[in-house]
């Protein structure tokens, strides 16, 4: 529906071009009086609420009847009850607003007009007493409807309901042209990717045949040398000996000898070892390729939402943007030597924009097509650390969290962090929400900066989690929390440090993972109500913290196009990191990059198996391991999951891409 206004303008242009001036004027007039409001839920709700504020009950009901005939009556019968509840709530909101404005005559007028129709309806039996209640806001029968939370929940629910209807409407051909073009472009990209993959497989097959022939030749030479050695031994054993005349065995039989070339030359970490015995393996993985684009440990890695590109940042604060599907496009390298890169995110609607946040107040917007930073957002100097970035799936909007330079400042100050929404179309800051100690709930835990941010499917709400265990659901239009609770009292392991919070696919619940490895499911309708809890076996892994755990470099010769593992010593800025010895490997101080859900939230991938060197897929409904991915040589620091691709990134700079067939 985003193309409606654009198509309207095209129609006007066409009418003028053809000289249909009368039709043009009529069309323009009807556009101005458009009751459908361009299929924008915001404007429809604004029109409904304008009748409420003006106490125009006739206009309100007429407009609702229009919506009912135009849209609601075409829905399946199972939605009729929901439509009826929305109508009842809308009329109740009209009565509540009239009461708040002390316009009792409008309430009496409503019941005089519609009282006979509503009489006998159990939904309205108590409401006949509304005009006679001295203080309805404290009356048990009405107090719920006078709360700000009820009005906001009704507003959001109606908005989501209308949006869902518009998104599932059958579109005319004129509006489908853009969708068809995007779909055709995606299919062309997929065909090119498959062709490139076929060429790569052919090359691998030829190289494999050559290697097999070489190994067979070596094996033949070894066998030939071995046979000659056996003949020499047999000749020597049949020659009389003066010194050895006791019962020695001289029958010439020799024990088998194993030569190095008779064995596989593949390192053990690259072998396809089946370590998934007893697992259900719900995914068919077609390939698990290893890429060596980074030259030092990867701190965060993200797949673009269209699944073609990977952006990976290492401890040297160098971001590399590269294509893993065999494209000829060169790797893009972004150096950021003045600050530490803390967060990374692709713009959700294309592969064009990459956003990254630092610990020096900056969020940079990089355009891959122009190969330049097109804008630089600056955060509040009180919260310079951009911990997390999340992009709206439907708008040119993103949200980020800010925190003080040092965590001690977050604990001691009255303002402990911020949540900011920014517009990529106007390149401006839209709203800011500041965490203050005065807004602390009943929990005795101090407020901490926000660590995780996720939008819902239509970008109207987002959920956040922090290190003190607070879950908050925000209305994105006002950036105010509509729900908030703390998980610490319900955690079986006593941990409140949240490393992932995510809306379920149906958005009736929130999945939360804490740093003790507990996966919990919370109702998004009843704040603080936990629906299920389970333990993710193997997560979080125990990460190595001493130099004795450094894995040596591989002795295999790497091709010039690949990157080798550098010295453990990093150029990463240490302005906010305690000094460590040079031989100590980088250890991530956050487990947020170590968890990723798939699109329908039925599964998630975590850093888990084989001492933290392996990605593990879990089922969210049970928390059980269902599949494992190939291991790396060193422990993992980041994972991501986008459509049919999973990436795992490790401390040695390697990134493994696990690909599944399109469903």
TrEMBL record:
<dbReference type="GO" id="GO:0031901">
    <property type="term" value="C:early endosome membrane"/>
</dbReference>
<dbReference type="GO" id="GO:0045022">
    <property type="term" value="P:early endosome to late endosome transport"/>
</dbReference>
<dbReference type="GO" id="GO:0051898">
    <property type="term" value="P:negative regulation of phosphatidylinositol 3-kinase/protein kinase B signal transduction"/>
</dbReference>
<dbReference type="Pfam" id="PF21051">
    <property type="entry name" value="ARMC9_LisH"/>
</dbReference>
<dbReference type="InterPro" id="IPR036322">
    <property type="entry name" value="WD40_repeat_dom_sf"/>
</dbReference>
<feature type="region of interest" description="Disordered">
    <location>
        <begin position="216"/>
        <end position="257"/>
    </location>
</feature>
<dbReference type="Pfam" id="PF23138">
    <property type="entry name" value="CTLH_Armc9"/>
</dbReference>
<dbReference type="InterPro" id="IPR048957">
    <property type="entry name" value="ARMC9_LisH"/>
</dbReference>
<feature type="repeat" description="WD">
    <location>
        <begin position="291"/>
        <end position="332"/>
    </location>
</feature>
<feature type="domain" description="ARMC9 CTLH-like">
    <location>
        <begin position="44"/>
        <end position="168"/>
    </location>
</feature>
<comment type="similarity">
    <text>Belongs to the WD repeat WDR91 family.</text>
</comment>
<dbReference type="InterPro" id="IPR056327">
    <property type="entry name" value="ARMC9_CTLH-like_dom"/>
</dbReference>
<dbReference type="GO" id="GO:0141039">
    <property type="term" value="F:phosphatidylinositol 3-kinase inhibitor activity"/>
</dbReference>
<dbReference type="InterPro" id="IPR006594">
    <property type="entry name" value="LisH"/>
</dbReference>
<keyword id="KW-0853">WD repeat</keyword>
<dbReference type="InterPro" id="IPR015943">
    <property type="entry name" value="WD40/YVTN_repeat-like_dom_sf"/>
</dbReference>
<dbReference type="Pfam" id="PF00400">
    <property type="entry name" value="WD40"/>
</dbReference>
<dbReference type="GO" id="GO:0031902">
    <property type="term" value="C:late endosome membrane"/>
</dbReference>
<keyword id="KW-0967">Endosome</keyword>
<feature type="repeat" description="WD">
    <location>
        <begin position="629"/>
        <end position="663"/>
    </location>
</feature>
<feature type="compositionally biased region" description="Basic and acidic residues">
    <location>
        <begin position="242"/>
        <end position="252"/>
    </location>
</feature>
<protein>
    <submittedName>
        <fullName>WD repeat-containing protein 91 isoform X2</fullName>
    </submittedName>
</protein>
<dbReference type="InterPro" id="IPR001680">
    <property type="entry name" value="WD40_rpt"/>
</dbReference>
<dbReference type="InterPro" id="IPR039724">
    <property type="entry name" value="WDR91"/>
</dbReference>
């Amino acid at each position: 529906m985003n193309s409606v206004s654009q198509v309207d303008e095209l129609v006007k242009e066409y009418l003028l071009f053809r000289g249909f001036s009368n039709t043009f004027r009529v069309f323009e007039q009807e556009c101005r009086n458009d009751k459908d409001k361009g299929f924008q839920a915001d404007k429809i709700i604004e029109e409904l609420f304008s009748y409420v504020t003006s106490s125009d009950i006739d206009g309100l009901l007429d407009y609702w009847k229009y919506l009912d005939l135009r849209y609601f009556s075409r829905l399946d019968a199972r939605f009729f009850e929901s439509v009826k509840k929305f109508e009842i709530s809308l009329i109740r909101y009209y009565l509540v607003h009239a009461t708040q404005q002390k316009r009792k005559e409008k309430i009496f007028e409503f019941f005089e007009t519609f009282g006979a129709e509503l009489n006998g309806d159990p939904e309205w039996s108590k409401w006949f007493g509304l005009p006679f209640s001295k203080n309805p806001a404290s009356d048990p029968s009405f107090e719920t409807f006078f709360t700000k939370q009820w009005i906001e929940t009704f507003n959001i629910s109606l908005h989501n309901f209308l949006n869902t209807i518009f998104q599932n409407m059958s579109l005319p051909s004129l509006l489908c042209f853009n969708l068809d073009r995007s779909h055709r472009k995606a299919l062309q990209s997929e065909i090119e990717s498959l062709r490139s993959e076929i060429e790569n497989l052919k090359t691998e097959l030829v190289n494999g045949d050559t290697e097999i022939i070489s190994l067979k030749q070596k094996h033949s030479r070894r066998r030939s040398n071995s046979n000659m050695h056996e003949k020499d031994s047999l000749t020597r054993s049949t020659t009389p000996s003066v010194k050895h005349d006791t019962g020695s065995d001289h029958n010439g039989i020799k024990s088998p000898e194993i030569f190095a070339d008779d064995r596989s030359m593949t390192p053990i970490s690259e072998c396809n070892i089946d370590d998934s015995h007893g697992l259900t393996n719900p995914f068919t993985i077609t390939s698990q390729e290893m890429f060596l684009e980074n030259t030092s440990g990867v701190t965060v890695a993200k797949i673009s939402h269209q699944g073609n590109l990977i952006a990976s940042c290492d401890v040297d604060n160098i971001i590399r943007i590269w294509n893993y599907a065999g494209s000829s496009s060169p790797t893009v390298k972004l150096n950021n030597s003045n600050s530490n890169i803390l967060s990374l995110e692709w713009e959700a609607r294309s592969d064009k924009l990459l956003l990254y946040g630092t610990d020096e107040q900056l969020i940079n917007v990089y355009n891959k097509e122009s190969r330049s930073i097109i804008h630089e957002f600056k955060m509040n100097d009180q919260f310079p650390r951009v911990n997390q970035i999340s992009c709206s799936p439907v708008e040119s909007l993103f949200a980020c969290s800010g925190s003080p330079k040092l965590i001690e400042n977050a604990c001691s100050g009255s303002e402990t962090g911020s949540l900011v929404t920014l517009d990529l179309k106007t390149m401006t800051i839209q709203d800011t929400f500041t965490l203050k100690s005065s807004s602390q709930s009943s929990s005795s835990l101090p407020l901490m900066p926000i660590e995780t941010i996720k939008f819902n499917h239509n970008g109207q709400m987002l959920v956040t989690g922090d290190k003190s265990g607070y879950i908050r659901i925000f209305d994105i239009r006002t950036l105010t929390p509509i729900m908030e609770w703390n998980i610490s009292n319900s955690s079986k392991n006593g941990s409140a440090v949240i490393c992932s919070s995510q809306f379920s696919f149906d958005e009736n619940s929130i999945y939360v993972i804490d740093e003790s490895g507990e996966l919990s499911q919370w109702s998004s309708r009843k704040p603080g109500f936990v629906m299920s809890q389970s333990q993710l076996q193997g997560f979080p892994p125990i990460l190595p913290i001493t130099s004795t755990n450094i894995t040596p470099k591989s002795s295999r010769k790497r091709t010039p196009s690949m990157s080798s593992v550098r010295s453990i010593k990093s150029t990463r800025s240490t302005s906010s990191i305690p000094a460590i010895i040079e031989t100590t490997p980088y250890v991530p101080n956050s487990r947020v990059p170590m968890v990723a859900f798939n699109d329908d939230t039925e599964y998630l991938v975590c850093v888990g198996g084989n001492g933290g060197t392996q990605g593990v897929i879990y089922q969210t409904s049970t928390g059980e391991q269902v599949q494992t991915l190939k291991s790396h040589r060193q422990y993992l620091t980041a994972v991501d999951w986008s459509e049919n691709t999973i990436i795992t990134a490790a401390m040695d700079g390697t990134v493994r891409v696990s690909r599944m067939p399109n469903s």
